[in-house]
């Protein structure tokens, strides 16, 4: 795997299969992990096409695996940045970390995308309440009852392969 980011808050690696592996660490890592998982599930439920899809998550290891939304953007007009974050709000989420480092470009989609939702806010908490984070993402393997196994998170059918 290629390391893409290594900060006090997270390590991000790009797998050879193109999937993004993000491990949370540092202050409030469990809260940031839970929030990002919750926001990505919410955005998938809302059909937001320009954010990563959550493929797997492990709350014990604070690890999530998502689809890849392309490469980071080096420069963008401030008006276009504002438009992109406003478009996200039309899906009911405010990003709260509106920096160029959280914008990517996906050649497969032919558009700009947003990443890194650990500080994002779901604007309609009543609707967000229907997201069930209690669904098991860990299961025991016969003979290894105490060993965690990462299994795919429940998702809707995904037709694009970001």
Write the layout of secondary structure elements.
Blueprint (H helix, E strand, L loop, with lengths): L1 E5 L3 E5 L5 E5 L4 H18 L7 E5 L4 E4 L4 E2 L5 H12 L3 E2 L8 E4 L4 E4 L6 E2 L2 H4 L34
Antiparallel strand pairs: 1-2, 2-3, 3-5, 4-5, 6-8, 7-10, 8-9
Would you mind describing this structure in some detail?
The strands form 3 sheets. A 5-stranded antiparallel sheet has the order 1-2-3-5-4, with helices on one face. The chain starts with a strand and ends in a 34-residue tail after the last helix. The chain has helices spanning 29-46, 78-89, 125-128, and strands at residues 2-6, 10-14, 20-24, 54-58, 63-66, 71-72, 93-94, 103-106, 111-114, 121-122. Helix content is 21%, strand content 23%.
């Amino acid at each position: 795997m290629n390391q893409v980011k290594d900060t006090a808050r997270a390590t991000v690696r790009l797998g050879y299969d193109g999937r993004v592996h993000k491990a949370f660490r540092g202050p409030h890592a469990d809260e940031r992990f839970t929030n990002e998982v919750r926001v990505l599930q919410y955005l998938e439920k809302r059909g937001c096409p320009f954010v990563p899809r959550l493929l797997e998550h492990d709350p014990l290891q604070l690890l999530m695996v998502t689809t890849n939304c392309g490469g980071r953007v080096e420069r963008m007009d401030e008006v276009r940045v504002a438009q992109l974050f406003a478009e996200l709000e039309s899906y009911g989420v405010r990003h709260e970390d509106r920096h160029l480092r959280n914008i990517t470009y996906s050649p497969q989609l032919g558009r700009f995308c947003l990443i890194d939702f650990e500080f994002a806010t779901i604007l309609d908490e009543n609707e967000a309440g229907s997201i069930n984070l209690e669904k098991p993402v860990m299961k025991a393997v016969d003979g290894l009852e105490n060993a965690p196994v990462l299994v795919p998170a429940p998702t809707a059918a995904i037709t694009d392969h970001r």
